[in-house]
Every structure is written in structure tokens, then in C-alpha cells.
Design a protein that fits this description.
The chain is of the alpha+beta class. It has a domain of 138 residues: Jelly Rolls, CATH 2.60.120.200. It contains 20 helices and 21 strands.
């Protein structure tokens, strides 16, 4: 009787969720499934909405904290405040409460949405809209892949989960439900991706499941996304936490899958981002990669496979006290992570480990001859300077920290040109006659006060352009002009035009109705210009002292480590997070970067791990991808190091290579939500997550003294923390219905 009641209740919940929330139809039944799938636009929107459960990873855990704070990458400044961080550090996780949040229901809601779409689009009685087979098959492929992604997120956290690939009927017998094995789930995920990839690619039209998409299609899944899922799934399935002696996912199988994924991306134009960058904007290409938004067309950024849709907001929730408007210091990098960054000249790690159990006595590496204990942050891996604010780090890279920004569009009256826009606010200009010009939109509000003002934008052009800017305002409706020139640029190029005229400071921007006019100077040769412009804005700022340094030492004037453990504005570890943080970011300008959900750098590392485990570091691994070349694990890691301007690894034994590989992965993917899962799938959680350490720096007689210290034990490194607990109400319900255990190991205790 009890089982019957529970089945009825559960079936009712499922039916309600399908008929209302999952189908996006109002509760009064105004739309039927047949009406939705009988309409082209609604069918398209339904397919696109299946991606809505892709989480914007970053600072979205409790207390606006990154996942890094819940592993050995960081220790959070809110450790002594109530909330998720304090609960995690004090072992308050249970099947009734997970400080990291319960995503079981979240991803299953996404899976249900995908199931309804795939079932309905295949039903000829429902799917009556006139849609080409190529476009329909593209939608089906993309929905299969996003469903595979949701399952991957589930199994990374919970292990094997129930595989549901069709909508439940009202009379579904829930007593037959079981958690599938991790291997069975991996099979399903990879098979779904393979089915999607088997869909013929449409060329010449912006439809179907493709390799290449436009900048106006941000958020759409590509074939590279499917290969990235396959790569990560195979790597996890072969890892110690999940692999068994009978598993089909051997390291050899994982090497085959990860090599194919890497080769497919490489042969389709993906490459590690390594564009030289002005040091006034970012320290190096690695740093700039994490503060710029990707361009889905891959005209500049050819590394990103898929990017989170929200900025990281590091400046606010993991910021330095120097930054106006910051809320808390957040995730302070640990000393263990800092110790991992190698020396750039020798290419050696500064330490070989620790001689004591508390990590307070590092073992010096004699081969790291360029390490100076008196200046421990000098000469490190360039990724260190891109990722961490340390004592003595420059807070600003130039004197143009933006205080306010006024985005504008080129959408006014125009002459002698065609002008089109896409949803990414990219303006496409083609000149058709002499004297072309275009108006901008109005400012929308008066310019704020600031000692420096400039017009800033990114552009591409088929030739060099000389242009005039007319500054139109109420006081002078005829405008004032500034002339500037930009060179030809085949890739997106940043340009800024300073307000140098006194009149511009006195009059332009006093009114919200002021606007700009742009002319290509007359001369009769303006035909044939093809110019693309994006991110056009007026920036207002007061230059900070460019030489201002971050002072994390005790008593430091701006960012010093604090003994007041409830003051969350200051670091607890002696370091602040820099990765993703643009030094320009402030309350009126969030210029911080976006989290990369998948990128080519991960695929190199996934292959390197599977290859060295299967064959050793020096054995070349080939794939069947046309145009690809054999590659060793050693070569894959060195490709990552070369982009960072680090020396190549020497020839190493398998055991030594594993140490250097794991260190490389930790550095390259720091704060990108990999380390948390890596230490679990490698089953080294007991070694890594018992506690972390920080660095207290004091200034004595003008010299810095460096003293390591240990934080209290976290008690989150037992075996039960290898997986999330499944929510207790779900466990109770399903155990009552099925009569078999559902909870993950040790969480019932």
C-alpha cells in the first residue's frame, strides 16, 4: 500500500512538471503539445530552452564563493562567518544539507526537458511544423549533447545515476528504477555524443549541428562541445575512483577517445590562445585570455569551446580592499597552490614537498637554482602573476582604471554606407559612396566627472581608416571634431581615442541627449571599406597610481592580512585571487572575465593523462582523424607550457612525469572547477584536503620575514566526501519504492 501511494504521488509530480514547467505552457492549457511542435518558431525556442540548465559556473556557491574555496586551491575569508564555507570547513555536510547546493533535481529537470523535446520531435502526430530535415536533425543533435552534458555533471558529483531517456508515462513503474553504474552512464553519455556527431554537417547555411558558428549565436553548442564531453567522460571513467578491473574504460581506451577529441578540434581550427598583448592591459596572453570574452566565430579566441554566460565578479566577491565596491576578499589562494608554481628560468618547482605533516617546512629543490627565499615571488611561472595577487604585486597595470562607462551604438541616420547589426552588438559597415557617416545613440545619462575621458572600441577593417568624430551637444549643435586613424586589422583590435580638446571637457556629456557622429574624411575614395565595430563606449576615469603595490604583509597599508577573522575584506591566506580579474573593474564597470566550461587546454591535458597512464610519457599516440599527427603525453604537456612561456619538461620516468603532470594540470586549470574533482577521481582527497596553509609576512627592520601557518583541520577529506550525498528525501522515497539502497557510501552513517 505504501509503495502504491508513493508511486502515485511521484507520478503526479512528474506529470505536473511535464505538463506545465517542462513544457513551458500555462496552467490553463491554452497551448497543447501539438500546437507547440506544429509551429516552427515555438519548436525552435523549445530546442534552445533545453540549454537553460547549463549553470553559469564561477562565484555561485554559498556566500558567492567559488568551488576553489572548497578544495585545497583556496581558503575563504568567510570561514568564521555563518554560511556555506563555515559549514563545509566544519563538516556539517549531510544528506539533509549540502553547502555546495543540491544539483540532482536541477540537472534532472534539464534532462526531462530534453526528453520531452526528443520524444515530441520524433512523433509525427505532434511534430507537424514545416522544418527542413537538416535543421531538425541539428536541433536533435544539440539536445542530445546537452542532455549528455547534464548527465556528466551528475556523475561527476554523485557517481552512477538513473538513466532516463524518455518522458515517464503516468503509469510508469518506479519500482524498476535503479542507479546505473558509472560505466553505464559513461556509455550513454559517449553514445549520445557519437549519435549527434554522426549527424551530417550542413555547409553554407547557419543551421544544423556545426563546428563553426557566428558571434551572434553565442550559447549554441558545437561539435567541439560534444568532443569535449567525450574527452572528460572517458578520462573520469578510467580514473581510480570509477575504474574497475573489468571496466571497458581502460587508460588505453581513454587515450583513444581523448586523442580523437583533441585532434578533431585541432584539425578544425582550434588553437591555444597566444596572441601578444599590451602589458598595460594584461601581464601575458594567458592572463588576457581569462579577462576577455570569447568570440564564438573564433576569429581571435580559437581556444574556447564553451564559455559561461556570466562574468565572474572576482573584483566584488574575491577582490582586494583597494578596489572600490568590493564586498569580500573571498577565495584566498593557499600556500600549497603558490608552492606549485615553478621557476621560469630553470623550469623546476621550488620545493619537492614538505618534511613535516603540517606543511610548514618545505623541502628545497636544489635544481631550482633561480629560487631566492628572500624574494620568493620573483621569477615564477608567468601564470602565477596572472592568477594571484601576492605581496608586492602591482595592483594596476596602467594608469587608466575605468571609473564609469557609457556604451553606445551606431544606429542613427547614415549616408553612403550600409549598416547592419547582430545580436552581439557588432556593427558591420560597408561604404558605398563618398562622404559616409553614421550617428551614434545618445549617451542616456550625463557623463560623470573624471580627469580622463576616451572613446574606446574594438574593430576589424579591410584597410586603414582615417575618421572624424563630431562631438554633438546642446551648446554647440554643429559639433566639434577630432580626427584619428586606425590601421588595417584582420583580427579584433582595441582602439582608444582620448578627449583632448578643452571644449569637449567643458560641454560634451553635460546632457543625456549628447551623441556622436563619425565620418570617414572626404576625398572620394571611401568606397569599399568593410569595417566591423563592437564594444563601443565612452570611458571616464581618474588615473590611479600605476605603481601602487599590493601589501599583504601584517599591517600592510592596503591589503594586509588581518587577525580579525570576522573581517572578510582581508585575505586569510596572505594572497588574493587575480585570475579572471581585470584591474579596471569597479562598481560602474564590471570588466572581469568569463569562466571557460570547456577549452582546448583541458583537452591537451586530458589526453596527456590518459596517454602516460596507458603507454608512458614518450610513446606517440595516433588517431584516425585525417590530417592529425601522433603525439606523446610529454609533447601535450609541453604545448601547454610553451603557451605559458615555460621551459619544456625534461625526459622523465612515468612516476616522475605523473607528479609533474598533476602539478601542471593544477596550475593551468587553477580556479576553473577542475581541482575539486581531480583530487577525488585520483582518490588522493585524504592527502590534499585535510587542511591548508597560508603565509604571514611581517616587516622587520625594512625586510620581509615569511612565516607559514596552518589553518584548522577541515574534516572534509574522508572517503564519504569523494561523492556528494544524495538528498535524503529522494533516498527515502526511492528506497521505499525500489527496495534497494540509493545513498552514496558512508552518507547513511
Amino acid at each position: 500500500m505504501k509503495n502504491s501511494i508513493l508511486k502515485t504521488i511521484l507520478a503526479s509530480v512528474i506529470l505536473i512538471s511535464f505538463s506545465c514547467a517542462d513544457l513551458d505552457i500555462p496552467s490553463d492549457g491554452r497551448l497543447t503539445m501539438k500546437e507547440i511542435f506544429g509551429n516552427y518558431l515555438m519548436t525552435s525556442n523549445f530546442a534552445n530552452s533545453c540549454r537553460a540548465w547549463i549553470l553559469a559556473i564561477g562565484l555561485h556557491y554559498g556566500n558567492s564563493t567559488p568551488l576553489a574555496s572548497f578544495c585545497d586551491e583556496a581558503h575563504d575569508a568567510s570561514d568564521n562567518m555563518g554560511g556555506a564555507v563555515n559549514d563545509w570547513y566544519n563538516n556539517r555536510t549531510s544528506p539533509f544539507y549540502n553547502p555546495l547546493g543540491d544539483v540532482w533535481e536541477h540537472y534532472y529537470n534539464g534532462i526531462r526537458k530534453c526528453n520531452v523535446f526528443l520524444s515530441s520531435i520524433a512523433d509525427p502526430e505532434l511534430a507537424t511544423a514545416i522544418i527542413s530535415e537538416e535543421e531538425k536533425n541539428g536541433w536533435i543533435a544539440e539536445v542530445r549533447v546537452v542532455r549528455a552534458f547534464y548527465y556528466l555533471q551528475l556523475i561527476k558529483r554523485y557517481g552512477g545515476v538513473p538513466l532516463v531517456d524518455t518522458p515517464y508515462e503516468i503509469d510508469h513503474d518506479f519500482s524498476t528504477n535503479r542507479r546505473a553504474s558509472f560505466e553505464a552512464c559513461a556509455d550513454f553519455i559517449i553514445e549520445e555524443c557519437d549519435m549527434a556527431l554522426a549527424t551530417p554537417e550542413v555547409t553554407g547555411r547557419p543551421i544544423g549541428f556545426r563546428w563553426n558558428i557566428g558571434d551572434n549565436e553565442r550559447g549554441k553548442l558545437t561539435r567541439a562541445f560534444a568532443y569535449a564531453i567525450k574527452s572528460q567522460t572517458a578520462l573520469y571513467a578510467a580514473s581510480p575512483l570509477w575504474a574497475t578491473s573489468e571496466s571497458k574504460y581502460t587508460w588505453t581506451k581513454a587515450a583513444e577517445i581523448t586523442k580523437e577529441a583533441l585532434d578533431q578540434c585541432l584539425t578544425h581550427g582550434f588553437a591555444l590562445y597566444n596572441t601578444p598583448i599590451d602589458p598595460k592591459i594584461a601581464q601575458n596572453p594567458y592572463a588576457y585570455y581569462f579577462i576577455r570574452q570569447s568570440d564564438p566565430s573564433r576569429s581571435v579566441d580559437r581556444e574556447t569551446i564553451y564559455e559561461s554566460g556570466a562574468r565572474t565578479n572576482v573584483w566584488r566577491y574575491a577582490g582586494t580592499p583597494i578596489t572600490e565596491g568590493m564586498v569580500k576578499a573571498g577565495a584566498g589562494p593557499t600556500q600549497e597552490l603558490v608552492d606549485c608554481y615553478e621557476m621560469q628560468v630553470s623550469g623546476e618547482p621550488p620545493f619537492l614537498g614538505y618534511s613535516d605533516a603540517n606543511h610548514l617546512q618545505p623541502i628545497p629543490n636544489a635544481a631550482a637554482t633561480d629560487y631566492d627565499p628572500a624574494n620568493p615571488y620573483d621569477g615564477r611561472d608567468p601564470r602565477f602573476y596572472a592568477s594571484i595577487y601576492y605581496n608586492g604585486a602591482p595592483r594596476y597595470l596602467s594608469d587608466d582604471a575605468i571609473k564609469d562607462t557609457f556604451p553606445i551604438l551606431l544606429n542613427g541616420a547614415k549616408q553612403a554606407m550600409t549598416l547592419t547589426k547582430d545580436s552581439d552588438s557588432i556593427i558591420h559597415i560597408n561604404t558605398t559612396a563618398a562622404d559616409p557617416w553614421v550617428y551614434s545613440s545618445k549617451l542616456g545619462r550625463a557623463l560623470t566627472e573624471g580627469s580622463v575621458r576616451q572613446l574606446a572600441f574594438e574593430y576589424k577593417s579591410n584597410r586603414a581608416v582615417n575618421a572624424k568624430v563630431f562631438w554633438w551637444d546642446e551648446a554647440n549643435p554643429e559639433g566639434r571634431t577630432t580626427t584619428f586613424g586606425v590601421p588595417q586589422a584582420t583580427d579584433w583590435t582595441f582602439c582608444e581615442v582620448r578627449f583632448n580638446d578643452v571644449y569637449e571637457y567643458q560641454h560634451f556629456g553635460k546632457s543625456a541627449d549628447d551623441y556622436l557622429r563619425f565620418d570617414i574624411p572626404e576625398g572620394g575614395t571611401e568606397l569599399g571599406y568593410q569595417i566591423d565595430i563592437r564594444y563601443i563606449a565612452i570611458e571616464v576615469f581618474t588615473p590611479p597610481p600605476a605603481a601602487q603595490l599590493v601589501e599583504t604583509f601584517a599591517g600592510g597599508g592596503n591589503c594586509g592580512i588581518s587577525d580579525k577573522v570576522t573581517d572578510t575584506r582581508y585575505t586569510r591566506t596572505g594572497y588574493y585571487l587575480r585570475k579572471f580579474n581585470n584591474f579596471r573593474s569597479a562598481p560602474t564597470v564590471d570588466a572581469d572575465g568569463f569562466m571557460k566550461i570547456f577549452r582546448l587546454g583541458e583537452l591537451y591535458l586530458n589526453f596527456a593523462e590518459a596517454a602516460y597512464q596507458a603507454y608512458g610519457p614518450e610513446t606517440p599516440v595516433a588517431s584516425t582523424v585525417a590530417g592529425s599527427s601522433p603525439m606523446t603525453a610529454h609533447q601535450a604537456v609541453n604545448a601547454i607550457r610553451a603557451r605559458a612561456d615555460m621551459p619544456p619538461l625534461p625526459s622523465l620516468t612515468k612516476a616522475d612525469f605523473e607528479k609533474r603532470y598533476r602539478n601542471e594540470r593544477r596550475i593551468e586549470l587553477a580556479f576553473e572547477e577542475h581541482r575539486f574533482f581531480d583530487v577525488r577521481r585520483w582518490k588522493i582527497l585524504r592527502e590534499t584536503d585535510a587542511f591548508v596553509t597560508g603565509m604571514r609576512i611581517t616587516k622587520e627592520s625594512g625586510n620581509f620575514v615569511y612565516t607559514r601557518f596552518k589553518f584548522p583541520d577541515r574534516n572534509t577529506n574522508s572517503n564519504k566526501y569523494l561523492m556528494y550525498p544524495i538528498r535524503q528525501d529522494e533516498v527515502t522515497k526511492m528506497e521505499a519504492i525500489t527496495g534497494v539502497p540509493w545513498q552514496n557510501p558512508e552518507w547513511n552513517n
